[in-house]
Design brief:
By secondary structure, this protein is mainly alpha-helical. Helices cover 73% and strands 0% of the residues. Helix 1 packs across helix 16, helix 4 packs across helix 20 and helix 8 packs antiparallel against helix 17.
Length: 495
């Protein structure tokens, strides 16, 4: 995409880099934290975490089909914004993507904040107790989280080549260390766990606690676990830097969803195979827990260190991919003129939207501070889930409306081009995503919290109101400048 600058985005990301972007955005807290802390966030899910995960995969798969269809026709930076603004409505396109940008930016901050306790646990496991205590203190934790965040902001600024060279090796390390959890989890069973733990901590009689899960609880858990799949959206945002984008973007989305879904299920199943859900639920109500913490009762200390290191790398992987994603949304808005024009500037040396990347880092820094003062990182996850459910829902709607709204772009679809197939997939996605969104909002609004602003829904609504005001102001400026707004949103941005 070319702006007023001499430099433009450079198409250097191949299939491996794109797939890694999706995988690394999806794997992280979703693997090591959420499937276990969900016992606190959704009380009563008990032993139904795996069924909830499988159900969560369904709307994600339909959304992935929608993204693949749209990406093949509109391979540009800022994917979801471009898709909806050209195929549904410019206003809804901005609202959907602003919601996404806000949710993911906060999530980047949450992830940066959550990483530090993993380093703390490694230090304690290596008997560096003073370092562990230091990392557990509030100021060092926040400071180090900010340092890590801005390191990856810098890597993103330096361009997609250094980005890819950082991300791909970390991804393979993440899979290798994650495999330790899968192997260990299936090597042990609940009886081994009972033999390893003190009866005062957990006894065999507690295994008799029944697993009675209501339909609403299952749906509420699935809505949270749905967050495990949202990362493939990052692939679409990199559409302006992908090689052979009409082909590579849909392939990368499909590969990312299949690989992550399979790995996620094996990983979670392995931990619950070794550790009774009754114990996981008990511990989650008392403290923050992770996969590594659950398996330390069964494994030698050296294995435990490997697992914690794997968790830290998985979380680190989230950061560069998600920063790329949110910054390209800002770049696309600015290139269309509905965001300050400076965010569409491309660095002449590195061919990256430097200002947009920096602003994304600023917003993520707010997420770090918010996580620290709120004292519960699930607030950030809830905001992200609401944002992404809305965004994915509108992507499915866009598949339905594209031929009527923009027939010329509809003809460019190269994936699942049969109209009947498109309608079946997108309609199924609309129904499931709408159901998940309703359940998620209901759970959020009925949960007991100390202050109203700890509910994610009103915070999200306030952000949407601000986004609407910004959109109306910038659109009015475009019209006053003589821009043909209808023509602007009928065509794809120039390369």
């Amino acid at each position: 995409m070319q702006t007023g600058n001499k430099a433009g985005l450079s198409r250097q990301l191949g299939l491996l880099g794109l797939t890694s972007t999706g995988i690394c955005s999806m794997l992280g807290a979703s693997i090591y934290v959420v499937p276990f802390m969900i016992q606190r966030n959704v009380p009563g899910i008990d032993g139904a975490v795996l069924p909830a995960f499988l159900f969560a995969a369904l709307p994600a798969i339909f959304a992935a089909f929608a993204y693949s269809i749209l990406a093949s026709a509109m391979p540009r930076a800022g994917g979801s914004y471009i898709y909806a603004s050209r195929g549904l409505s410019p206003y809804l396109g901005f609202i959907a993507s602003f919601s996404q940008w806000f949710g993911l930016s906060i999530a980047i901050g949450v992830i940066s904040y959550v990483i530090i306790p993993f380093f703390r646990d490694i230090a304690i496991a290596l008997n560096y107790l003073a370092l562990g205590n230091f990392l557990n203190a509030g100021t060092p934790r926040v400071s180090l989280a900010l340092l890590l965040l801005w390191l990856f902001v810098y890597i993103n600024i330096r361009g997609v080549r250094i980005y890819e060279r950082t991300l791909v090796p970390l991804m393979f390390m993440m899979f290798g260390l994650g495999a330790v959890v899968i192997i260990a989890g299936f090597l042990f069973n609940h009886q081994d766990f009972l033999n390893a733990i003190s009866p005062s901590q957990f006894s065999a009689t507690q295994l008799n606690r029944e697993n009675s899960v209501s339909v609403f609880t299952l749906l509420a858990a699935s809505a949270i676990l749905f967050s495990s799949f949202i990362g493939f959206d990052s692939i679409a945002q990199a559409g302006g830097e992908a090689k052979n984008p009409a082909s590579s973007l849909p392939k990368a989305i499909g590969l990312a969803v299949v690989i992550v879904g399979s790995f996620y299920f094996l990983f979670t199943a392995a931990v619950y195979h070794a550790v009774p859900w009754q114990f996981v639920a008990q511990e989650a109500l008392q403290k923050d827990i992770t996969a590594a913490g659950m398996l330390t009762y069964l494994l030698p200390a050296s294995w435990g260190i490997l697992i914690v290191a794997g968790a830290a790398i998985a979380l680190l992987n989230d950061l560069p991919a998600m920063i790329l994603s949110v910054s390209r949304l800002m770049f696309a808005w600015a290139a269309d003129g509905i965001f300050p024009k400076g965010f569409s500037n491309i660095d002449s040396k590195y061919h990256t939207p430097k200002n947009a990347i920096i602003m994304s880092g600023v917003m993520a820094s707010v997420g770090i501070l918010g996580s620290h003062f709120a004292g519960d990182f699930f607030l950030g996850i809830d905001i992200m889930v609401t944002s992404m459910l809305v965004n994915f829902l509108l992507m499915c709607v866009t598949v339905v409306t594209l031929p009527r709204r923009n027939p010329s772009l509809a003809k460019e679809v190269k994936v699942l081009s049969n109209r009947t197939t498109q309608l079946i997939l997108s309609t199924s996605g609309i129904v499931l995503l709408m159901g998940f969104l309703c359940v998620h909002i209901w759970k959020d609004l009925t949960s007991a919290v100390a202050e109203w602003y700890f509910h994610s829904t009103p915070v999200w609504i306030i952000v949407m109101v601000l986004a609407t005001l910004l959109y109306r102001y910038k659109l009015g400026g475009l019209r006053k400048a003589g821009t043909d707004v209808n023509a602007l949103f009928k065509e794809l941005p120039k390369e």
